[in-house]
Amino acid sequence: MPTKELPDRAPGKYVAYHPNPYYSPEALPIEPKLEVSDQTYDLAADAAYQIGRIDGISSTVDFSAVLYTSLIRIEAVESARIEGADVAYQDLEAYHTQHTDGETDITVEKDLREALNYEKALTYGLDRIESGESITLSLIKDLHSILLEDVRNDGEVVGNFRDHMVHLASPRSGQHPFVPPTPEALAGLMQSLESYIQMGGQYHPLIDAAIIHYFFETVHPFSDGNGRLGRLLIILYLASEGYLESPYIYPSAYFSRHKVEYVERMRAVSEEGEWEEWLTFFLEGLRSQAEKSYGRTHQLRELQERYETEYSGTTNTDKFARQLLQYPYFRAPDLLEYLDVSRRTAYKIVDDLEEDGLIEEVTGKQRGKEYKSVDVFDILE
Q: Would you call 90 exposed, middle or buried from its count of C-beta atoms within 10 A (0-12, 13-18, 19+)?
């Protein structure tokens, strides 16, 4: 088919290819430099404020470690869902409760494995950033290997750039698929991305995060896992720029709720040069998710205060009720370790808290029962 002529403001062009032309993006940095509006910079400043606010409140709570882990798992679930995975936050909590030794269970279904891999990759990337490393192509390839561990399909290249063309279906019926650039172009384009990150970008860091994410998804350097890896890089980039001490925001939830607009905004940049609209969409996602995280953390802190008031006694049931935010998903035998109590006492604690409505059994089994904190899960989910 004939190639589509794009306006001069588009950051790339279509090149004839059968059966659909492929998109050849210009390397970073964007030339000529974008004229970002004052309104967009104001939105970036507001998003940065909201992110700083959640970092601030999170450092004041006693359950920050649990919050850290919970939000990583929520991000992992939401990112997997965008790709069509049928997985829930509770599934990750159940897996980790059942596999406390840290050994990987290769028998789990693919959808859950994708979310677990995302959690592992994000934690790995954050540890590398915290140790002073920067985002490089080597790190990106390592993350890709983690993401596709035990979930790769035949013919997929793992831990390295793709060696074949890919076609991305449009969310709109009747619209031609989007075809990213050729494998031969990937090395140069991705090197420009690495250089752009190393130079610290050209704009406000949150605006640069939007540009980096768009560019990565448009280049689509890997045969699979690009969406998950691109969203993971948002968090790593914000952490590397000092805007996020911990992953207390989960942008994938916003993109999941607005999946069609998410895809179409990026395509509009490629075909029409509609940067302002994409930046607004992306920044509003960061702002709204930071605001939601702040609200959730505030709710959890109020819940902790309520438990400390209502269960202020010295019984073992009171003690564990005050610790529910630290152990929101558990099995009765776990209490032997958590509280150093007998098995009989552990089951009495479970009975007491279940009767009070603080916990509920989730497996429906007679043996190997697992419990979740009703209030904590209501807030997190």
A: middle
